Amino acid sequence: MIGSVNGLVGLCKADQTLPKFWNFHCIIRREQLVSKSLNLDNVMKPVMEIVNYIRTHALNHRQFRNLIAELDQGLPGDLPLHCTVRWLSKGKVVSRFFELLDAVKLFLEEKDKDYPELSDLEWIMDLAFLVDLLCHLDRLNLTLQVWWWWCLPVVAMETQDALCPHPFVHRLTLSRTQRLRGLLLGLLLFPLRLLLASLLFLVMWPLARLRLAGLSPERRRRPASGWRRWLLHLPVLLLSRAVFFCLGFLWVRVKGRRADLKEAPILTVAPHSSFLDMLVLCPAQLATVVSRSENCSLPVIGALLEFNQSVLVSRKDPESRRNAVTQITERVTSNGYWPQMLMFPEGTTTNGKTLIKFKPGAFLAGVPVQPVLLHYPNKLDTVRWTYKGTTWMETLWYTTSQLYTNVTVEFLPVYRPSEQEKNDPMLYAENVQKLMAHALRVPATDYVMEGRVPVRKLDGLSLALDPPAREMLTLLRSAGFGASEVEAMLGRVIDRCRSGAERWKANAYELACLLGQVEGQLEGRTATKICGLFSKDELVDLRQVYLSIAVVSGVVTFQSLLHTAFSLFDVEGRGSLDAAALSGLMGALLGVAQQDTRQLHAAASRDGRVTEEDLLAVLTTHPTFHRVVHEYLQPEGAVLQLPNRKSVSNNGSRHNENGALPANKKAD
Length: 668
Hints:
This protein has 668 residues and is α/β, with parallel strands linked by helices. 47% of the residues lie in helices and 10% in strands. The strands form 6 sheets. The protein has a 7-stranded mixed beta sheet, with helices on one face. A 3-stranded antiparallel beta sheet has the order 10-11-12, with no helix packed on it. It has a 3-stranded antiparallel beta sheet with strand order 17-18-19, with no helix packed on it. The radius of gyration is 29 Å and the shape is globular.
């Protein structure tokens, strides 16, 4: 075909009647040549040196894997070894290296190996760029190979997870030297700094109470003025700064200019790392904040919230949330009558490696906002307090055990919304999130915390980052459950679900009975822990337990599972579901409550109701919702069927028709 003389290309070039043209080799090969010719040796060379140092020495390799296991951060268990012949491995190597960067730095430090690049922010940014680029090239190459197209959703999900790390997990990794140094300094600095901060809080307490003392409830709903403001504001501001000074924040670097009240009624601060972020109130001149109403009962903190005239909201009370939105809107549109407001639009704390989805509260009024970035440029990232990992006490201990902690508050230019953004608060929030993520050089993600469960959004659906069913399966395996025991347990659970609606709910003891471990390990704390994975109260919905565990264990095909789910939620036996029943069914399948299934309902419904056939069609063929099945509702070690009756597992290994995985690993 491409011979220069007798091939098609050669004959066409010799034909003078044909116009000039370019001839190309295989497009997959050209992409490979591009990936090999990238001029990023300053990144690849150190990475490959470090990988080879770890992988080519048996002792180093074993010690590195043991270190990862000791850190217990949910990290991948090993570094892959790069081979030039395996041309797709380069992207996998740098991606895994980026995920394990902290562990690699700690390991090399213990081995007295000096690689200054690992502490160079510019080099790390180049590494992140290379990860993004090579993962894209790998994915493009895979899509050009026909048999890989069938497992593309798995590849896409792994690529996204590699580039967008879990934002709700942070564990501090310390070397032995750092642990010893922290222990010695902590024994001295922790009690001393806490004592000084407590004394300052005690001085602030009466001053804070004095601001609104003697005022009627009606007067308290208006901003403090006169002597109550000018006499008390400065002392409380100075004392607040002194508290953080005592905790080790000796210097606060401020970049940019804080906009005045008329320019931007709202300051939006991100990323939100911990309670120590309240330091930003000092350069923000004690702007008004939004806080949980439960915090009012805390000593000193309640007085300071009263002094700040904060907007209080209860997350458990929908009416309280509506009142808070009304108060925020009234204040930021008061044309300077109320002070400037400061809000953390993420709504919860993260590890700062990504920006999670912004909540719309700060953007509902459609007024200009000033984005504010919080940086903690320290060798040890001690200030993070997240959903999993470092506790608030550990955060306080590690931070106060440092000689000092650096912090930078960066005020970005005021963001003025367009008319479209004023009419669409979600769009406004999304655009500000992207702007701040770009300035921070981190990904802007659709992750969010819903009901104390971290999820990512997919057209309204909530997909748990840590599916409770997988955690339950881990607990069952640790208790000695094998595939047959899990299947038998699911049989008992579904039998009870089918016995009547009044038997859908179960407490921890009843669940232990269904698990067949009344006198075993699941009788006490483990059964209670399993209930806690699916419910906030003492009762758990057994339909959710059955459906979500059946998904991850793979004991039935998805089509059969959906049929069972439909029969459980079609209580009236009409053969169709309304919007509420559809929300319950998807919540049971996905393992978390679904707050917004409107788009799924609109895509699958006819005359307001959804049939089983329509729902199956949408979940398997819809451009967006098919990802729920192909990416999320996949059993562990799922096998994807190929057109030639061969299969590919998630790790890329192929099985012929006689060598497929066992029945408990089936996938539809």
